[in-house]
Amino acid sequence: MAHQEGPQVVNRRAFLQVAGAATGAVVAAGIPGIVSAQKPPSFPKGTKLNILEWVSFVPASDVEFKRLAAEFGKLVGVDVTVDQINMNDLNPRIASAIETRSGPDIIMMISNWPHLYAGGLADVDDVAEEIAKRDGAFYEFNRRACVVDGRWKAVPLCSVNSTWNYREDWFKDVGAAKFPDTWDELRRVGTDLKKKGHPIGQAFGHSLGDPNQWAYPITWCFGGAEIDDKGKVVINSKQTIDALKFTVGFWKDCLDEGGLAWDDSSNNRAFLAGEISATINGASIYFVAKRQFPEIAKAMNHAHMPRGPAGRFYSIGGQARSVMNYSKNQQVAKEFLRWFMERPQYDKWMAANDGYVVGPTPYWEKHPLWEKDPKLVPFKEASKFGRWPGYPGQPSRKASEALVKYILVDMYAQAIKGMKPEDAARWAEGELKKAYA
Amino acid sequence: MAVPVSVAVAVPEARRPGRLGRLLEREHVLAGVLLAPALAILTLFIAYPFVLGIWLAVSDKVVGRPGAFVGLENFRVNLNDAIFLRAFQNTFVYTFIATFFKLVLGMLAALLLNQHFRFKRIVRASMLLPWIVPTVLSTLAWQWMFDATFSVFNWVLLNVGLISKRILWLGDGTLAMGCLILVNVWRGMPFFAITLLAGLQTVNPDLHEAAEIDGANTWQRFWRVTLPLIKPIMLVVVLFSMVATFADFQLIYVLTRGGPYSSTHVFGTYAYEIAMRAAKLGQGASISLFLFPFLLLVIVFQLWYIRRSD
Fold first, then answer.
1. CA distance A404 to chain B (A)
2. Which of A72, A96, A191, B89 could, after both became Cys, cross-link A253 (CB 3.0–4.6 A)?
3. Predicted confidence (pLDDT) per residue in B101-152, tens digit
4. Which stretches of chain A score pLDDT less than 70?
């Protein structure tokens, strides 16, 4: 992260100084100051804290997190250990920890997992509410993911947003000075791009991220939804059928036909190989381009999800941390969450992520790193338009079932493969009714 | 009094065994003691999880909440679930086709490896490579070869001029299933080849000579002499392989995760999604236990057949 030094340090410092009198004092007094000023450590000697996290796609993020965890350990005299495993291995690990009532004291939650595992999670209302009071209300998708039956079951941490990654140079070649603002415009531009041998890329296979980044937002953009706010299945609507018709047309006119076989990493590779002109993705393509393909990094930019008849939407899961209710160290675990989310610590961790993560409250939209690289700005703004699987209902266990069955993704995939849009919507209705039964 | 005296005289120096020693001298007690560790391991690691699995399958257990008995409700839900029914069908298609090819190709390879040629040992050892390499690793390599954009197969076929458009190996339900079977055969065939080779080596060459003198040709010798002799070992390999293929997970989860449009799910992958990612342990257990009665039938039949042949 050497490139962050220099003027950037001054910026960050300046940012912290305007971050309010309390925080200003903290910066002056240093980190030990905060802890001693607010709550003197009073944990019995030999207290341990074990934290389970994913392995981040940004290695510097993991390094900084471990450093902060160790710093906290020293401050409060607690032996802190951090275990990191692959994101896909978290589900079975959490299930076994909760069922055997033993394991890490704090576990990372991704998307709506607090709803899945509520029975094994301690309430953290005080910590979450304290953060919201200080930094402003959490984004709605962060809040919905963490509040289960009126109680905070996790403290929102961040979100890893996806948005459009596109080749500015190729878009200009077909007369698009900027990224289209509506889906219809994007289809027009995309048609020209595909004719020139630069199709757009979108996955429709079974993988956790990318296929859902199309299926959910496009449905909402056209005014459709899986369920209404009462949980009734409403997918089979004119709006959904419009979204399906649009997708089928978009597939034929604009998309690379590889999409049905793509997983989450396919579009990264295709974009970096110059095979596609645009795709929905996190900042990872850009990060790799900056390191390995500087000419692509220069030629690319990011832009918002286009607007549909019903507006602009993103599907965002968000990440959070939960204190496990079997833990004997719940107090110190909560203290850690509180301390980590304080501005000085969170600022460092966010800086280490370099734009890969977006803070859980609008406060962090003011972080200087967003000024450093304007190409990353759409990522932070995406949070404002973020919704969750199950919207406008709850991101419940049932929403998860619909998600793991890939009902929405498969609805679009089947329409692309030739099923009539009306039949695809009817099929999804049948499947969703079972998932939401 | 004569008997004890005579015993004392016969073994004057022998220490009388203690109570425990005397107990262990009884054959059935000793057998029990020797079997106990194995039995304990089986109970702990096989029987307990199995019974727990059955309990989960008839409960509405989700992670973090106690489950209640719901009878066969989970199985009823499964039978009304189109994705489950597709997984059911896929599991059978995948298992039978893959096992058939593994057997035929494995037999061919075994017959070839049974010949005398230079570097025989090296070739035999290298045969085992696909089977030894961790499935996840080898499957990742296959994933690259089937990649929608960078497939080496497509590259070759395009350059040779056999195709004019990329083939989406994993982008179509039927084709993807074919690819999964291909990778499974590639991975499992060496196990067949090496085991059958071991069987072939037990066949007495005299029998072949005798058959040859009687005028049997190569095919007749294979069909009438070799095959009957290695049938028991063949059945055991097929049995093992079928059970393993039925329960396959890694290969499919890495390559397709059941996609595209849920056309390549098998019991294992679908059960994992429901039990782990939707946290519905009961429903997930009922999906994976669905194959138990069938596997039991296969095992009972094959064991019966092997015993009968013996």
1. 6
2. A191
3. 999 999 999 999 998 888 888 988 888 888 888 988 999 999 999 998 889 9
4. 1-42
Give A308's Cβ-side CA count (13 Å radius): 22
CA angle B57, B59, B63 (to 5 degrees): 95
Per the CB < 8 Å rule, is A204 touching B260? yes
Residues for chain A: how many in total? 437
| Å between A148 CA and nearest CA of chain B | 14
Task: Please tell me the class of the A2-158+318-385 domain.
Answer: alpha beta
Which among A91, A257, A406 has the least Cβ separation from residue B168?
A257
Closest residue in A to B272 (Cα–Cα): A92
Residue A62 makes CB contacts below 8 A (sequence gap 6+) with A53, A55, A56, A84
Q: CB under 8 Å to A174, separation ≥6 — which residues? A: A189, A192, A193, A196
Give the pLDDT mean for B2-27. Answer: 65
Please give the pLDDT value at position A39.
Answer: 52
* Identity at A280, one-letter amino acid code: I
C-alpha–C-alpha distance, residues A189 and A175, integer Å: 8
Mutate to test the interface with B, among A406, A411, A427, A432 (most CBs of B within 10 A): A406
Mean pLDDT of chain B: 89
Q: What is the per-residue pLDDT for B309?
A: 67
pLDDT mean over B11-36: 80
- ipTM for the complex shown: 0.84
Give Cα separations from B85 to B76, B207, B287 (angstroms): 12, 49, 10
Residues 6+ apart with CB under 8 A from B121: none
Residue A1 confidence (pLDDT): 35
Q: Is the predicted pLDDT of residue B247 greater than 80, yes or no?
A: yes
Residues of chain A contacting residue B176, judged by C-beta atoms under 8 Å apart:
261
Q: Which domains does chain B possess?
A: 18-57 (no CATH), 72-309 (1.10.3720.10)
* A149 neighbors A274 (Cβ within 8 angstroms): no
pLDDT score, position B15 = 65
CA angle B130, B134, B140 (to 5 degrees): 85
Q: Which residues belong to CATH 3.40.190.10 in chain A? A: 2-158+318-385, 163-314+395-435
Q: Which residue from A222, A212, A235, A246 is spatially nearest to A388, judged by alpha carbons?
A: A212
Alpha-carbon distance A190 to B23, whole Å?
A: 86
Give A283's DSSP letter.
Answer: T
Which residues sit opposite A324 in a β-bridge? A121
> What is the residue-wise DSSP string for B19-47?
HHHHHHHSHHHHHHHHHHHHHHHHIIIII
* A163-314+395-435 CATH choice from 3.40.1190.20, 3.40.50.300, 3.40.190.10, 3.40.50.720: 3.40.190.10
Does the beta-carbon distance from B260 to A413 stay under 8 Å?
Answer: yes
Question: How many Cβ atoms sit within 10 Å of the Cβ of residue B136?
Answer: 11
Structure tokens at A55: 């392995």
